[in-house]
Amino acid sequence: MRNIVNSTYVTLDGIVSQPEQWSLDYFDQGAGAYALDKLRAADALLMGRVTYTGFAEAWSARSGDEFSDTMNRIPKHVASRTLVNPTWNNTEVLDGELVDAVRGLKDGDGGDILMYGYGPVAQQLVAHGLLDHLSLWIHPVLLGTAGSSVFAPGVAGRFGTVTTRRFDSGVVVLELTDPVTT
């Protein structure tokens, strides 16, 4: 069985939206190596339509380094009811209900399935006990504004193990694993 691994940038006040506007100053050599290790362990990506749209635009225009080349090569699964004919290579839109489609992906052969961002797709996976590993990259930033938050009302989940990793930039990653079903 494959694992669903989520890697999400978050501010101290829980904001996950528009990380390109507040996270880039904190991406150091250690963070780069850690991110590449996560990508190397995966053989597929899973994302919602909003993440797909931003990633397709950014990554399809890049090449020539291991991270970019892997992002462009790896199979991508998108949960969307509105996306048709995705243009980023190796992309398929999931059929049917999200939970059933993700269970099917998990039951297949292969490595980790990597997700970036913590929006409605990740929230549903947590609610159904399908997210195996959640890495919250906590940035030393307070936005003080409204936005998409990791603290979504009505989404509950428990993890049995928490470990931490700290980078020289001040970013701390909380590694949450072993989801507990209640």
UniProtKB/TrEMBL annotation:
Domain Bacterial bifunctional deaminase-reductase C-terminal stretches: 6-172
Taxonomic source organism: Kineococcus aurantiacus
GO molecular-function terms, A-Z: 5-amino-6-(5-phosphoribosylamino)uracil reductase activity
InterPro entries named in the record: DHFR-like_dom_sf, RibDG_C, Riboflavin_Biosynth_HTPR
Example GO BP: riboflavin biosynthetic process
Protein name: Dihydrofolate reductase
Domain of life: Bacteria
